[in-house]
Amino acid sequence: MTPPVREILIDRKRIDARIAELAEEIRSVYGGQPVVLVSILKGGFIFLADLCRALGMDVEIGFLALSSYQGETERQSKIQESNLALPDLTGRHVLIVEDILDRGPSLAHAIRRCQSENPQSLRTCVLLVKEGVERIEYPPVDFTGFTIPNVFVVGYGLDYRERYRQLPFIAVPELD
Ligand code: IMP
Ligand code: MG
After folding, report:
1. C-beta separation of 122 from 70 below 8 A
2. Whose CA is nearest to atom 22 of ligand 1?
3. What is the pLDDT of residue 78?
4. pLDDT tier at 118 (50, 70, 90 boundaries)?
5. For burial by CB atoms within 10 Å, which of 37, 90, 95, 134 has the most?
6. 171 CA distance to ligand 1 centroid (A)?
């Protein structure tokens, strides 16, 4: 499969190097305490797989499947939650692992969902934070992989119409 890639924004080497740095930051914050990593599906699965192995920590894995759909106006964005595979988060250290922060509702929803179980702590780790976006919600990001311009990207878990998630890099696709 040859994807219609206009530009590779972040190649595999840079992703790997940044994940190693993030893992170091995260380890130093938790200092050996066990953590529940909550990945937001579908986009977060590849980042989670690489991050959890780089961490080398005592972790449990949970999944929260979210999909967003646009309301009738630009500013309405509803989040649908399904297919829950979350361990009990009460009293746990929880780290949400997300692929990208765009307009904000997905991560904001995940934070509210996890917070409702009264974790001992709740933090967020986002691989890509888009700059110059008009946010609807402003969820806090504790660990950021990369900040990128306001462009649509695919690869490393991120899709365009469910394709290209498997690409080992982050790219701007050629869309017609
Ligand atoms: P939100 O607008 O921050 O709630 O982001 C919603 C979701 O849209 C993200 O979790 C991604 O799954 C998806 N998304 C946002 N920007 C992109 C992109 O550039 N490429 C692919 N998916 C994206
Ligand atoms: Mg996502």
Report:
1. no
2. 158
3. 75
4. very high
5. 95
6. 14
DSSP 16-84: HHHHHHHHHHHHHHHTT--EEEEEEETTTHHHHHHHHHHH-S-EEEEEEEEEEEE-SSTT-EEEEEEEE
The pLDDT, as a whole number, for residue 58 is 95
Residue 145 Cβ contacting ligand 1 at under 6 Å: no
- Computed from CA positions of residues 29, 47, 145, 40, in that sequence, does the dihedral angle turn out positive or negative? negative
Q: Which helix (H) or strand (E) holds 10?
A: strand 5-10
162 alpha carbon, closest ligand: 1
Q: Coil, strand, or helix at residue 119?
A: coil
**Exposure on the CB side of residue 71, measured as CA atoms within 13 A:** 10
106 CB under 6 A from ligand 1?
A: yes
- Told to judge if 159 belongs to the known catalytic residues of this protein, a careful annotator would answer no
Distance, in Å, from the CA atom of 73 to the CA atom of 48, rounded to the nearest integer, reads 33
Around Cβ 133, how many Cβ atoms within 10 Å? 13
For the ranges 6-15, 28-37, 47-56, 76-85, the lowest mean pLDDT is seen at 76-85
Chain centroid to CA 113: how far? Answer: 15
* Of 102, 142, 159, 176, catalytic: 102
The protein residue whose alpha carbon is closest to atom 8 in ligand 1 is: 102
Residue pair 103/134 in contact by the 8 Å Cβ criterion: yes
